[in-house]
Amino acid sequence: DYRRKSHKKLLYDYEYYKNKSHPFRDKLVIVSRILPHKFNETMRNLEDEMVQKANGENIRSLEHLFQIFKNTEKEILLEFANGEFFLFSKMELLEINANIKKLYSLSGLNNLEE
């Protein structure tokens, strides 16, 4: 049933990479949901998009992306498979994440420890 309900682009990526290794990735990092918030309005079209790079580094896994974020002091530049990119202030992201967690009564914004 997941094949019928899945976004076709995700299904394609899954099928394409399930039996072959990606040149630089251990795992694919895909934005699954973007919660409604005024900060997120310009990013709504990034749902189901693959994160290609962060601060110029090819993303190998979600853990790798989080490590780059943790090691970033001021800004993070995210580049997506569809060619779009966004530059974020680390301090602003931390504040917005805290606001979104409170707004939606979430214990976390990801499935990894924060």
Could you characterize the architecture of this molecule?
The chain is of the alpha+beta class and 114 residues long. Helix content is 33%, strand content 15%. The protein is built from four helices and four strands. Strands 2-1-3-4 form a four-stranded antiparallel beta sheet.
The rounded distance between the terminal residues' Cα atoms is 32 Å
Largest sheet at a glance?
4 strands, antiparallel
CA radius of gyration is 15 Å
Shape: globular
Q: Count up the helices.
A: 4
- Helical content stands at 25-40%
Sketch the topology as an H/E string, one letter per element: HHEEHEEH
Number of strands: 4
Strand order of the largest sheet: 2-1-3-4
List keywords for this structure.
114 residues; 15% strand; globular; 4 strands; 4 helices; single chain; alpha+beta
Quick rundown:
This protein is an alpha+beta fold. It has 4 helices and 4 strands.
